[in-house]
Design a protein that fits this description.
Among the domains are: 198 residues, Orthogonal Bundle (Phosphatidylinositol 3-kinase, Chain A), CATH 1.10.555.10; 72 residues, no CATH class. Strands 3-2-5 form a three-stranded antiparallel beta sheet, with no helix packed on it. It has 542 residues and is mostly helical. It is elongated and about 100 Å long. Strand 10 and strand 11 form a beta hairpin.
């Protein structure tokens, strides 16, 4: 392949990217119709459309309004501080998200109580705050997370086994969270695309990480993605419109082919790549993944939630659970990506890439569906995805902290598992001994002893009998005879009955022990054994 002449990024002609995925979301001008009373002229109002069936959206009502209002660009930084000459807004330092004294402009966020319980209780009391979606970054609420007794835990600090439990619990909690609003969380079927087995573009994240871990066992983010970050950070953080512009088409095509062929062999020469081409290929990397980085199948439920106009706190809680339910590769990559984008946003005064601009440009690359949708559905999905990315950028310092109520549930699950492992060997030994005793006394089963050890092990448990374990109850294990009418509630009732019997027996033993102590004090001449017999009524000599 003939190498193209090298050019510096400074000599590059700024070329707007013409692809649909990389253009900023279109703005819809105001119509002549009247707006609803609760709509703000500076807010983005989502239409009152609902999901009518799986994988589709209902057509909005004729009296509903679906506008993305044109809001003038204000010279405001991502942290809320204005340009010189503008009114000063209250702002927080980057390290103020974990303090004990809450400033007046911030709102407390608790990780101790289940999110679904919080919204359910708020809805019952009709105390759920509402807010409007606005384009300005500084209008987003600042949250303060109180430190708990055990501190806050990063998702990456937990073991793989614990994070697997966290993902399952988060999905259950997310379902209950949406159910509190009457929203059914459906995983809409998306068209599956088989990824490539080698190369860089179009390869699943898990496959890329498996290949990269042969070089670095501890890597959590694909190495090629880290290289794209480095190239942009070297000289592109102050480049105006860095993610809105496309590089030289011929060079981008050449670099893509060379990366696919040479990157894994460490033969690609990164010094010849410009930061513009690196930014273009970074977007292409995510756009060409077999499945989007974030689960687009949950977007309909989030859209339904946004139509109810909940407070930003409620939106964050739903997003927090969605992030905790992500696979490890997606979550770690998303965290690295949001950290990188915040570096870009920190240079907004020079590169003109605000938090909203980054969100609208990157939304089609991070949330995409290969299914066909109408223009209205595409716009609604793009607006919601852009708002989700903006929330992730704003709250990325606390978004990756695991909620304490999920950690508490995982801890209880681990304790129950450890208790079961301790008790299981002794229970198995007791059952085996009882079975062997029964076989030796029964002439019908005496022939079993002459069989092989494997055959004897198969006969330890009678046919139709299962052993149910309940480590949190006093009666931790019980053999249950199954039949066609056996139900779960019958087994639970049997456990409850056995627990009551066990508690009565313990109460009797406690009473006998006290009687024995009293008799021992009053009749010192009698032996303890005789006193116990008298207490339970077996000695009639007194």
């Amino acid at each position: 392949m003939n190498e193209l002449p090298r050019e510096t990024c400074d000599n590059h002609t700024n070329q707007l990217d013409g692809t649909q995925e990389e253009r900023e979301l279109p703005r819809v001008t105001k119509t002549s119709g009247s707006m609803p009373d609760d709509a703000s002229p500076n807010s983005t109002t989502l239409s009152d459309a609902s999901q009518d069936k799986e994988g589709s959206f209902a057509v909005p009502r004729s009296d509903s309004v679906a506008l993305l209002e044109t809001i003038p660009d204000l010279p405001v930084h991502s942290n809320g501080s204005p340009e010189p000459g503008q009114p000063v807004q209250n702002s927080m330092n980057d390290d103020d998200y974990l303090v004990k004294n809450i400033p007046p402009e911030a709102e407390e966020l608790s990780f101790e109580v289940s999110y679904s319980e919080m919204v359910t209780e708020a809805l019952k009391r009709n105390k759920l705050k509402k807010s409007e979606i606005k384009k300005e970054d500084y209008v987003l609420t600042k949250f303060i997370v109180q430190k708990t007794r055990f501190g806050l835990t990063e998702a990456g600090d937990l073991s793989a086994e614990d994070m697997k439990k966290i993902r399952h619990l988060s999905l259950i909690e997310l379902t209950a969270f949406f159910d509190a609003f009457g929203i059914q969380l459906k995983r809409n079927k998306t068209e599956k695309v088989k990824g490539r087995d080698n190369g860089i573009f179009g390869v699943p994240l898990a496959v890329l990480l498996d290949s990269d871990r042969k070089k670095d066992p501890g890597v959590k983010v694909p190495l090629v993605l880290q290289k794209f970050f480095e190239k942009v950070e070297e000289s592109g953080l102050e480049s105006e419109g860095i993610f809105r512009l496309s590089g030289c088409t011929a060079k981008v095509k050449q670099y893509r082919e060379e990366l696919d062929a040479k990157f894994n062999a460490d033969k690609f020469k990164w010094d010849k790549m410009c930061h513009r081409e690196a930014a273009v290929m970074l977007k292409a990397f995510f756009r060409e993944l077999p499945t989007s980085l974030f689960p687009v199948e949950y977007i309909p439920a989030f859209i339904s939630l946004m139509e109810r106009g909940p407070h930003v706190k409620v939106q964050f809680q739903a997003l927090h659970l969605m992030v905790m339910a992500l696979p490890d590769a997606n979550r770690d990559t998303a965290q690295a990506l949001m950290t990188f984008f915040n570096k870009v946003i920190a240079n907004e005064s020079k590169n003109r890439m605000s938090m909203w601009n980054i969100s609208t440009v990157m939304a089609p690359n991070l949330f995409f569906s290969r299914s066909k949708h109408s223009d209205y559905e595409e716009l609604l999905l793009a607006n919601t995805a852009a708002h989700i990315i903006r929330l992730m950028l704003k709250y990325q310092k606390i978004l990756w902290k695991v909620p304490s109520f999920l950690i508490t549930q995982v801890r209880r699950m681990n304790e129950a598992t450890m208790l079961l492992k301790k008790q299981l060997p002794s229970v198995r030994k007791l059952l085996r001994r009882k079975t062997l005793e029964r076989e030796t006394t029964s002439p019908k089963t005496s022939k079993v002893l002459q069989k092989s050890p494997s055959a004897r092990r198969m006969s330890d448990v009678p046919e139709g009998v299962i052993r149910v374990h309940a480590p949190l109850l006093s009666k931790v294990s019980m053999a249950i005879q199954l039949n066609n009418q056996t139900k779960a509630k019958d087994i639970l009732a049997k456990f409850q009955y056995e627990n009551r019997v066990l508690h009565r027996q313990l109460a009797v033993l406690y009473f006998l022990n006290r009687k024995w102590v009293e008799k021992e004090k009053t009749e010192a001449n009698r032996s303890p054994k005789h006193v116990l017999l008298v207490a339970i009524g077996l000695d009639t000599s007194m």
